[in-house]
């Protein structure tokens, strides 16, 4: 069984005061409200309804924590890492107050979490690096941790478009720095799941984390 299959919901928080104590590596997921972030988490963990999606951008302003566990030498399950589902940033339809709340909540999380190990940014492969994506990437880059850009819905591109998109996004990642990696992914077709798992396991095991 993969470590990610052990994922269990821990809690949701709507304000910084509610953040739990952090003592294991945390991997955060960010993405536009229609990019497939919840599907990505569900596919990664092989649990169909672990993460829930709201069809209304900006409605769910919660940070959700999911614990990953392994058995210790005594056979007891022990939390070894957490997946952190950040609120979607559907800013096209969100009020300015929603943007402000997102910035304060996520900015506070980024600034305060010493256990934050890396961030997965889920983008629609058909429309990557939209203005809101760029805004959030700049926002997230204030904290020098690993970033993995996941180009979801790649099954809706032909092979040539996949190559061109991957080349374009990798070039943009290179401009930001070596701490950013990129891959194609399809939550619907389960493409790229093993590559994503391997990347995140390296983060959890503290491999290649220097930025």
UniProtKB/TrEMBL annotation:
Xref: SUPFAM superfamilies: P-loop containing nucleoside triphosphate hydrolases (SSF52540)
Keywords, alphabetical: Cell cycle, Cell division, GTP-binding, Magnesium, Metal-binding, Nucleotide-binding, Septation
PROSITE patterns: G_ENGB (PS51706)
Residue intervals passing through the bilayer: none
Organism superkingdom: Bacteria
Keyword Magnesium: yes
The EngB-type G domain, residue ranges: 23-206
Pfam families xref list: MMR_HSR1 (PF01926)
Cofactor: Mg(2+)
HAMAP family: GTPase_EngB
Family, per entry: Belongs to the TRAFAC class TrmE-Era-EngA-EngB-Septin-like GTPase superfamily. EngB GTPase family.
Stated role: Necessary for normal cell division and for the maintenance of normal septation.
Record protein name field: Probable GTP-binding protein EngB
Organism: Parasutterella secunda
């Amino acid at each position: 069984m993969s470590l990610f299959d052990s994922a269990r919901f821990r809690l949701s928080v709507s304000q910084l005061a509610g953040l739990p104590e952090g003592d294991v590596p945390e991997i955060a997921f960010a993405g536009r409200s229609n990019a497939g972030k919840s599907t990505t988490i569900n596919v990664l963990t092989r649990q169909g309804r672990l993460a829930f999606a709201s069809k209304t951008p900006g409605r769910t302003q919660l940070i959700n924590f999911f614990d990953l566990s392994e058995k210790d030498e005594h056979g007891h399950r022990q939390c070894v890492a957490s997946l952190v589902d950040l609120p979607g940033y559907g800013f096209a339809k969100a009020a300015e107050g929603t943007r402000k709340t997102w910035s304060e909540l996520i900015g506070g999380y980024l600034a305060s979490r010493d256990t934050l190990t890396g961030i997965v940014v889920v983008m629609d492969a058909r429309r990557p690096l939209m203005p809101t994506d760029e805004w959030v990437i700049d926002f997230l880059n204030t904290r020098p941790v690993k970033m993995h850009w996941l180009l979801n819905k790649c099954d809706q591109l032909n092979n040539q478009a996949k190559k061109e998109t991957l080349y374009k996004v990798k070039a943009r990642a290179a401009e930001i720095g070596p701490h950013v990696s990129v891959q194609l992914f399809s939550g619907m077709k389960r493409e790229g799941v093993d590559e994503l798992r391997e990347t995140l396991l390296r983060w959890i095991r503290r491999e290649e984390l220097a930025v």
